Amino acid sequence: MKDFILAANWKMNKTSSEAVKFVRKLKNKIKKSKSNIMIFPSYLSIPALAKLKINNLSVGAQNMHYAEKGTFTGEVSLSMLNDLSVKSVLIGHSERRTIFGETDELINKKMTTALYNGLTTILCIGETYDEKVEKITSKVLKKQLQLALKGIERDKVNGKLIVAYEPVWAISSGDPNKPKLTPTAKEIEKTHKLIKAELSKIGFNDIMVLYGGSANENNCKEFMQIDGVDGFLIGGASLVYEKFTKMIDIANKYAIDTNN
Ligand code: PGA
């Protein structure tokens, strides 16, 4: 059976108590889900969610620093995540890139630390609205992949790398001054193909590529059946019980069986 991932990026939402309440309610759905469920809550909620020890739930971090330890006020290291048994991390989310100024060079350092230490690492890439209009999507995505993975030896990565394609113009946070659009299934298919081809070209074969950007209970059935879509990175819809559980149900029916 082909793996399918539903990854919830909660961003700066839900307190620890709210997160625990939500996941407790979700427990049976997660256990019975045919998809792999990942939740990326705030750092502060990780211990409480990890303690729930739910089968088929991976509790990950939304970010991490590349250094082992040191004078980096406000940052969190790999060993701190290891200590809480965190096994997965998001790197290079567009909000980190645009709001917090993360460069490709910094993202490469984080990718190296995360992957070489065995974390399942979801590298987020995506073009902005202006880049889409300029028709340089392919160039932008290839560059993001090449720079994020620069110098990383494929053999040491051992199936830990996952890529999330999140066109910035489709993410709910997006740029408030630009139009918000949702890609068509054709656009997603074309871009996922391009990403997989570029990954192979730089030595990374069989990498799962998730789609993110306003993925929700209404569009997921169509999107999950697209060739090359191996799951979703979900923001807004993953915060709402009815929406997220609907996506889990739909994936049970359509993602796993039709994508085999
Ligand atoms: P969204 O967010 O689903 O709310 O658009 C996705 C993301 O930013 O990862």
Quick tags:
260 residues, alpha/beta, eight-stranded parallel sheet, 10 helices, binds 2-phosphoglycolic acid
Structure overview:
The chain is of the alpha/beta class. The protein is built from 10 helices and 8 strands. It has helices at residues 16-32, 46-51, 78-83, 94-98, 104-116, 129-133, 137-148, 185-201, 220-224, 241-258; strands at 5-9, 36-40, 57-59, 88-91, 120-125, 161-165, 208-212, 231-234. The chain has an 8-stranded parallel beta sheet with strand order 3-2-1-8-7-6-5-4. Strand 7, helix 9 and strand 8 (231-234) form a beta-alpha-beta unit. The radius of gyration is 17 Å and the shape is globular. The model has no long low-confidence stretch (mean pLDDT 94). The structure holds 2-phosphoglycolic acid.
Brief rundown of the structure:
The protein is an alpha/beta fold. Helix content is 40%, strand content 14%. The chain has an eight-stranded parallel beta sheet.
